[in-house]
Amino acid sequence: MMLLMLLLTAVPLAMPQCLTPADDAATAAVDPSMPKPPLYQGQLQFSLSMLQTLNSLQPQSNLFFSPLSVYNTLLLAYFISANHTERTLHQALYLPPQLTKVNVLEAYKVERLLDQMRAINGSDSYQLIVANRLFAAQSLSVRECMAALFSDELERLDFMRDAEAATNHINQWVANHTRGHIPQLVPSGRLSPTSKLVLANAAFFKGLWKSKFLPVKSKKETFLISSTEKGLVTMMRQKGTFNHLVSETLGAHVLQLPYKGNAVSMFVFLPPYAAPRGISNILKRLTPENLREILTEEIMIPREVEVGIPKFSVEQSLELVPVLANLGVGDLFNSSADLSSLTGSPGIQLDDAVHKAKIQVDEDGTTAAAATAFFTFRSSRPLDAAMFICNHPFVYLLYDAQSQTILFTGVYNSPPPSE
To answer: What's the predicted TM-score (pTM) here?
Structure first.
């Protein structure tokens, strides 16, 4: 606790007039009555908005991504932004209006410190890695105060001499932090000698179920993709006591499947099969308030449940610029963007954004990884409450109760043809 307090008090003193023209006076805006950490509030709303946006863009496809990864990369962009771009990102990140950029940086530094402590201490039950990087060209003039503030994130690369070597270095950093699950985030040829900046995040989770599914009980079963289409999945089954909710508000059953250690859980939202547009209806009805009640287990009830969930893996690549445009930050990727807090002068432009994510769910547990980079180059009544059989499309998310963040989320709409 003393270490955290020292960190909080040291941040503003180290950066007078660095993040904003009035950093010295920018630390009095935090509301002590706020019940949740500021980044948690924003990240939860952002996660929900991004999930709703992606589902509307590809409603029939399997979907998987890490809102935590995208949110962290946008935070890096927020810290180096100024003027209208700073205001736009502050709003898009759903940061409380009363928080200054200094306040947000304080919260960010605490979160990163906790992430590092968890990664160092490790756990026999699960692994969780979250890492951010700001790869800047050696030719880019970075303000000394910003280099000091982001010394843990900032790394210099020589894009001009060898852009492909720089690309390989970034991809290797991502691969290392995702334990090899995201081996190539930035495609070959996307960076050039004129590249100036790459903002990147890597996130990795591997957890064992608190109550494992026995492989002997897994078998091929029908998955009802739609009223006219079916597929086959390997359905994992078990019967046990789990937190469960029949939500009339969402028109769905909700189930919590905890991983060992109890810090991270998978929450599954299952609409009734007969309900038309069941997934879309759930996502439309989900609000930060009712989602928070579920994630904090305030309205979940422990009871005996017969659980069936497919054994599956999903790997996804997303071109983020159109998605972020729908979320209100499309201007970040055109010439009007102001990223002058990093260098003290205009001229940096982010041109593209990519995101890759991968999840594998089996009898033992779950492995999930994701990485994001921004860079420059040139209701019906639900089924019987005792049964929770995911034999039709469902929404799922991995929630970390310790940091109060949604790590990964997705929609499982259908098994691959090979199943």
So the answer is: 0.90
